[in-house]
Amino acid sequence: MKKTFILILLSSLLISCKSKTDSKLQPNVILFLTDDQGWGDLSYNGNKDLLTPNIDKIALSGVKFDRFFVSPVCSPTRAEILTGRHHVRTGVYDVSLGGERINSDEQTIADIFKASGYRTAAFGKWHNGMQAPYHPNTRGFDEFYGFCSGHWGNYFNPVLENNGELVRGNGFITDDLTTHGIEFINKNKDNPFLLYMPFNTPHSPMQVPDKYWDKFKNKDLTQKGTLSDLPEDKYSGTNIKGENHSRAALAMCENIDWNVGRIIKTLKALKIYENTIIIYLSDNGPNGHRWNDGMKGIKGSTDEGGTRSPMIISWKGNMPEGKNVKKIASGIDLLPTLIDLTGIKAKLDKNLDGINLRKLIYQEDKDWPDRYIYNYWRGRLSLRSQNFRLDNKNNLYNMNEDPNQLQNVSSRYNETFELMKKAKTKWENEFLTNIKPKVKRAFVIGHPKLKNTQIPARDAKANGLIKRSNYYPNCSYMTNWVNIEDTITWDAEVAEDGKFEVVIYYTCAMDAVGSEIELSFSDSSISKIITEFYDPKEHGDENDRAPRIESYVKDFISLKMGVIDLKKGKGTLLLKGLKMTGKELIDFRLIMLKRI
């Protein structure tokens, strides 16, 4: 009897241990995505003007994909990483004004991993839709902290959002995002998690803490950029945006590296480093003509320099260390690869365009078949095979002999040239019919899966003399409201009947007190008299290390309009003036509608 009891006890202990071991076998995933960081902005790729030791160590402890390609700009790359599908399939065709949104019927990596028991979080720049059902909290992410626009105008203590609620950031934005990532890791150390860290640097405006800038502000950069796509007499060897732009970008890259190190240190302290897959890459080429090993093109270009990204994947003790993969790969490959590596049972709603990179990670790649990687943006399409690139103008380059795309060899490799042209035409015929929705998608209000709906100036149409604070809409506001007849409108759709508290974020001069504004949709309207003036100056230039192209920013105050009753359906959301007491009405930034 005693012997039987001991056997039962041992069996129970073994089952318990096996259960704990099995849970540990399901690895965590951390995906770092930087913004406008070029292939050459890391010391492990040969840049001698900066040091990125923490990222370099990940490369040494894992697998480096040396010829890895993404889209030429932000939101398309993000859509491809999140879905494993070409961005033109997903509904993404622009970087603002609604064209950055992933179609609501697309599955994301977070949807898939969450369904498999993972806790999920995204901290940083989303850039694939602001209102539900496009918001990250409705795309599979349990937690979101950051901003949904394509760029932000202030990196120090900025206004951000936390799961749909507006909050004030704490310190420099990349440091703040990383702190939230660390808190998430600590909270979920005993559960499998997917942590998406889409940092928004080194995207402009070029702001970085003194600690990093002081190292670079007087630095003589030893490696210069190249402009192989411009005549030599128009290029002096320096960044046409100014050397301080390059210096600030490199300073921001060193700050990114420090924050990556903070995450690694946390994983090691919690003893989960060896149970975590880490991926590091960027969303496009560099945002300036700084050193990038002579590659042609920068951000926005479909040439090599605009689409080649650093990419490292590491899983300490479970992957080869220091391996350098020369075979071409793409951002669309990450999702199928992670599904395989983690062993999750994924139920896919649609076919993926990406392929599983497991064999390239673990085996020799001698028998790996050649493929075409398609880089598309705004009517320009370039194809990359293992050895050749066919550019947007149908110039063919041998990328092994001529990595800087200096000599068209289409006549020398006529068979390859014809095959790649044929593949290009086929892809255009198959994919580009999807590049814009046949019916324009409205901006959604009151989706039941998210309590708050942000309706920013970014998505609005200015009518009359009202104008944006800047050509680039993402962090802009509306100003010059000098005529009472002028309006601000949105093509909108109320997802479900409901009552909503309305708050408008505005500024105005003292003489605008007593003015009255109205918000309306269909047969519903609500109005409010302005009783408080707030007329701050724009700011941001005091923290800029180089001139910016984006809007400067200012602080806005809230005006509680009251409650509006909205009925389901499409229509025009209209903000107008009913009474104007001064020279201008208001400067407008944002409407927040909260379902009650």
How does this model look, in words?
By secondary structure, the chain is α+β, with helices and mostly antiparallel strands. The chain folds into three domains: 30-365, Alkaline Phosphatase, subunit A (3-Layer(aba) Sandwich); 375-434, no CATH class; 443-595, Galactose-binding domain-like (Jelly Rolls, Sandwich). Helix content is 23%, strand content 24%. It contains twelve helices and 29 strands. Strands 7-6-5-4-8-1-9-11-2-12 form a ten-stranded mixed sheet, sandwiched between helices. Strands 18, 20, 23, 25, 26 and 28 form a six-stranded mixed sheet that branches. A four-stranded antiparallel sheet has the order 14-15-16-17, covered by helices on one side. A hairpin with a 2-residue loop joins strand 14 and strand 15. Helix 6 (173-187) packs parallel to helix 8 and helix 7 crosses helix 8 (243-269). The longest helix has 27 residues, at 243-269. Residues 1-23 and 229-237 have low confidence and may be disordered.
